[in-house]
Recover the amino acids of this structure.
């Protein structure tokens, strides 16, 4: 369990540094085909279907690679 917590912490730090120092690096994320965005004068609805499928696939692959 400590090994997984360390790996998760390193990944979160790397993502945080990427978002802080390179804000345009992930500007495509959330704007993929299949993500639903509805904006009116008073409301905004955002449903990131394709983006969450991509996150799920990446996390599944990482877990499968690190599983021993």
């Amino acid at each position: 369990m400590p090994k997984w917590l360390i790996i998760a912490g390193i990944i979160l730090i790397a993502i945080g540094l990427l978002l802080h120092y390179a804000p345009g690096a992930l500007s495509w994320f959330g704007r993929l085909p299949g993500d639903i965005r509805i904006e009116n004068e008073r409301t905004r609805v955002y449903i990131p279907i394709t983006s969450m499928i991509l996150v799920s696939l990446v996390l599944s692959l990482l877990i499968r690679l690190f599983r021993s």
Remarks:
- The radius of gyration is 16 Å.
- The chain has one domain: 2-66.
- Residues 2-66 form one domain.
